[in-house]
Amino acid sequence: MSLVSLRTFDPAPAFVDAELATLSPPARVGEFELDLELRHAGLRRVRIRYEINGDIRHPTVFVAGGISAGRHVAANAADAADGWWDAQVGAGRAIDPSRACIVSVDWIGADGTLDAPIDPADQADAIAALLDHLAIGRLDAFVGSSYGAMVGLQFASRQPARVARLVAISGTHRAHPYSSAWRALQRRAVQLGSLQCDAIDGLALARQLALLSYRTPDEFDERFGAAQVVDGRVRVPSEDYLDHIGQAYAMRTPVTAFLRLSESIDLQRVVPGSIETPVTLVAIELDRLVPVADAYALAQGLRGETRVRVLRSRYGHDAFLKEPAAIAAVLAEALELPA
Amino acid sequence: MSLVSLRTFDPAPAFVDAELATLSPPARVGEFELDLELRHAGLRRVRIRYEINGDIRHPTVFVAGGISAGRHVAANAADAADGWWDAQVGAGRAIDPSRACIVSVDWIGADGTLDAPIDPADQADAIAALLDHLAIGRLDAFVGSSYGAMVGLQFASRQPARVARLVAISGTHRAHPYSSAWRALQRRAVQLGSLQCDAIDGLALARQLALLSYRTPDEFDERFGAAQVVDGRVRVPSEDYLDHIGQAYAMRTPVTAFLRLSESIDLQRVVPGSIETPVTLVAIELDRLVPVADAYALAQGLRGETRVRVLRSRYGHDAFLKEPAAIAAVLAEALELPA
């Protein structure tokens, strides 16, 4: 990693309202730019947007999710809106901002301005630069789910002195070739739409396809019934749901961000033996994207203390979002945060 | 079913060359038109193209495959080109035209001229009409794979007196809601392409998506390696293979045929208790399209003698095409054709 320049844009800590600020741990959002040497695209100016939730003197837990999850992990004093992991991060939750300082980022590329191949190792370098910027020497834990788990493994491999433990949920040292094919076809859906200036429909279709990989037949069987003929066409009941999922995602996601972060997953490659950090791996039995066998292969190669927890969930890959109790139990065991 | 008119186009039996004709069992292709009452679209003129391979006085075996498989099941005296099931149908194979008369059809809708919802039960009615046309009172066996298994179940349900036994491979009494969602998204890929007069690319993408449902992660893991960055884009090794699969399919398949036959799978609904015919069900453990659980549910509901054979194959749903030895063993056991 090469940090050629560093320019800060940190706003003053922002509080939503006085009462919340009084009752809640401090929180703030910030951003800064740096020139980062990308593995596949050379030196690029990137912007790192981050969020801090909790007192910086507490144990520091970096939290990262999937490619569509950003810095706003949970509602906090700086941003009262729902986060993507309120089930795990908040007062009384597994990661409580009154006992931990939660740090998180928007992935580089997430704003759509970086149109280049982004390696998960580049994300790890950006996080290291953020820690420098925040004067955080070492993370007490890195908790990553999905793409976040991949980046966590990269971080542990490259920055062994800067992370005490890693929890990697539904993400491993490699992209499975079948899952890569699935993603490549999602990117083609976007391209097919883009050819006719219909990027929204292409991106919506890509997201719908991705959703199938995040879930399981068991869930669909419980939720959806038989097909109907409507206006001379066959319509299956899940299409209404998929329409909603696709449209909502396409409206909030830059096409370039989706393409480059989807690609990034496929670039994942970590040598398990390069990691000495203690790791808790969480794998989901019905995960159609990250087979449990890959988690076992990773566990066998890791050099530090390793725990593997296998959960069975009808939500498959999305268990980290949809199985709050099981995930909370794993986090409590893995993190051992002070009471 | 209503047969309002019947018009025949049967050509004289055609033989490829004199020697083959001498050595091989007789074979011929034919077609006829009829007005068929479609469940979801009323009376329609449809054309039924069929192929007969073997002496009509032998035990009659109707053979049907997936939505993209047609009447040309195997090379024969009327058409020496490779068929889609040469591994099972031919001299010395499980279904030998010197001992059986193999009858097969192009699905109604397969030529792209029928732009209406087609129920699998409509296909069963068309087959019954063909048997009338050929003066075949009763099939000794119906062997169907994938969509062909679905249609076989419809046929057994509706024509109990016309079929002595059924072998249903990788197809059941219903479309699984998750698989239906997967197909609905394939149809959306076609629509996305069609909007910009790029039906070929849309259809190619649909076929590529379908292929993922026909195969397994195990197979992709064995065949394909890690992603590469090529000209500033990430390319995964399976893309070359998928390109070939998609283009070849799109060049030979009318868009309407794909859409209507894909829809047809989603309309599958048979009450298992309506079937008294002896049935051999073959299910594949890693089938991502037809879960083994659905085969068990079907078996529990059938009223006649029922055998279930579960195979494990890294080819998943495509095992009926890619596991010739295992399928041959099942067919030999199920059909008990005279030596």
Report the CATH superfamily of the largest domain in chain A: Alpha/Beta hydrolase fold, catalytic domain
Strand content of chain A: 15-25%
CATH architecture of the largest domain in chain A: 3-Layer(aba) Sandwich
**If you average the pLDDT of chain A, what whole number results?**
92
Give the CATH class of the largest domain in chain A.
Answer: Alpha Beta
Rg of chain A, please? 20 Å
Number of domains of chain A: 2
* Largest interface (CB < 8 Å): A-B, 57 and 57 residues
Number of distinct helices of chain A = 11
Q: Which spans of chain A have pLDDT < 50 for at least 5 consecutive residues?
A: 1-22
EC number (chains A, B): 2.3.1.46
GO molecular function (chains A, B): homoserine O-acetyltransferase activity; homoserine O-succinyltransferase activity
InterPro entries (chains A, B): AB_hydrolase_1 (IPR000073), AB_hydrolase_fold (IPR029058), HAT_MetX-like (IPR008220)
Keywords (chains A, B): Acyltransferase, Transferase
Describe the structure.
The structure is a homodimer of 339-residue chains. With 339 residues, the first copy, chain A, is an alpha/beta fold. The first copy, chain A, has two domains: 6-175 and 269-335, 3-Layer(aba) Sandwich (Rossmann fold), CATH 3.40.50; 178-265, Orthogonal Bundle (Rna Polymerase Sigma Factor, Chain: A), CATH 1.10.1740.110. Helix content of chain A is 38%, strand content 19%. The first copy, chain A, has eleven helices and eleven strands. Chain A has helices spanning 18-23, 120-134, 147-158, 177-195, 199-214, 217-223, 238-252, 255-266, 292-301, 319-322, 324-335; strands spanning 6-8, 27-38, 42-53, 60-64, 101-105, 141-145, 166-169, 228-230, 233-235, 279-284, 306-311. In chain A, strands 1-2-3-5-4-6-7-10-11 form a nine-stranded mixed sheet, sandwiched between helices. In chain A, strands 8-9 form a two-stranded antiparallel sheet. In chain A, helix 9 links the parallel strand 10 and strand 11. In chain A, helix 2 (120-134) crosses helix 3, helix 4 runs antiparallel to helix 5 and helix 5 (199-214) crosses helix 7. The longest helix of chain A has 19 residues, at 177-195. Chain A is globular. Chain A starts with 5 loop residues before the first strand and ends with a helix. The relative contact order of chain A is 0.13. Chains A and B meet through helix 4, helix 5, helix 6, strand 9 and helix 7 of A and helix 4, helix 5, helix 6, strand 9 and helix 7 of B.
